Amino acid sequence: MNREEREQIQPLALSDIVIEAQRKGETLGYRDDELIIIDDLRDIPDFTGYKISFNIVLVCVRGKLQLEVTGEQVSVSDGQIIVCHSHTVLSNYMVSPSVECKLLCVSDRLLRTILASQMQLWNKMLYHHRFIIINAEAESLALYQHLRYQWIRDDSPFKREILISLLRAALLELCDQMMHGESEKESGIVSHGSSRMEMLFHQFLEHLASRHVKKLSVADYANEMCITPKYLSTICRTVSDKSPMTWISEYVMEDITYYLRQTDLTAKEISDELGFPNASYFGKYVRERLGMSPNEYRKKLRSVAR
User: Measured at the alpha carbon of residue 120, what is the angle toward residues 118 and 122, in degrees to the nearest 5?
Assistant: First the structure.
């Protein structure tokens, strides 16, 4: 796939899957603004031919699935899991008649919240390899059944919290398989080599993840890495298809979301805690990215959690 073809590919958001499924009268398993769990891949519209803006974990229980991941032909069969990061291009999707696949779609923000300190490993593996195929263990399928049991329940006010806890266990299990496999061959990891750009990209993410107070300027991170802001931008766009400012904003917004959802600190106190110059700038920063004030966003977050 050449550069011109990539630029013509349209982005696909989680909301697009929901809208298209509703239009066709098809059913999704579980869904909210940041998470979709699909019990049967055949029940949803074909979403290949797009650049996904979310991460996917696809479990092939039986049968065979073929698709292209950013131009590379991939085949997944019985008992295998394929993991793809956001901003991956999926195309030429085909399945066998007897295929049974489960699909998890999760936003970058929720993924970072779930994985916390392990997000660094996830980024390193996924942006280094573009995609990963591993052999599913019995525990992975058992965790999926627990997830399914929870989302079909209507009697628990803590359904989403339980789902997130189970999802964290499932994703950490994947991280464990990625990290502790005896060899890439035995664990089924598809390797695509390494580069200086990839190393610098992971260094940039480490700078972001390790800071409680995150700097808002691309130049600050570039100076710490002894490279120019322009080169840092080239690195991020080449490796992840996102600008460094987008990465900074996503990490900062994750911190903001945590404080608004999990604490009772005022907007000014959160502004001070996260190193914003003043509460007015903090409010403007949130409104520009979410279209609402910090307090309005807090109400939305807590209403979804109930």
Answer: 75
**What is the C-alpha to C-alpha distance for residues 298 and 221, in angstroms, rounded to an integer?**
29
Q: Per-residue b/e over 83-93, b at no fewer than 16 CB within 10 Å?
A: bbbbbbbbbee
Helix axes 279-290, 294-305, angle to 10 degrees: 60
Distance, in Å, from the CA atom of 105 to the CA atom of 31, rounded to the nearest integer, reads: 9
One-letter amino acid of 95: V
Predicted TM-score (pTM) of the model is 0.67
What phi-psi label fits residue 13: left (phi over 0), alpha (psi between -120 and 50 degrees) or beta? Answer: beta
State whether the Cα torsion 98-102-108-112 is positive or negative. negative
What three-state secondary structure class fits 78? Answer: coil
Angstrom CA distances, 1 to 6, 78, 91, 129, 151, stand at 7, 28, 11, 17, 38
H helical segments located in the chain: 3-8, 14-23, 108-115, 119-129, 138-151, 159-180, 184-187, 196-210, 218-224, 229-240, 244-262, 267-273, 279-290, 294-305
Residue 178 near residue 121, CB atoms below 8 Å: yes
Count of residues in the chain: 306
pLDDT tens digit sequence for 103-123: 889 988 888 888 877 777 787
SS3 212: coil
| Alpha helices (H) along 31-157 | 108-115, 119-129, 138-151
Report phi then psi at 56, rounded to 5.
-125, 145
Whether the Cβ atoms of residue 245 and residue 218 lie closer than 8 Å to each other? yes
Tens-place pLDDT, residues 132-168: 888 876 666 666 777 777 777 777 778 888 888 888 8
- In 3D space, the residue among 301, 299, 297, 298 whose CA is nearest the CA of residue 289 turns out to be 297
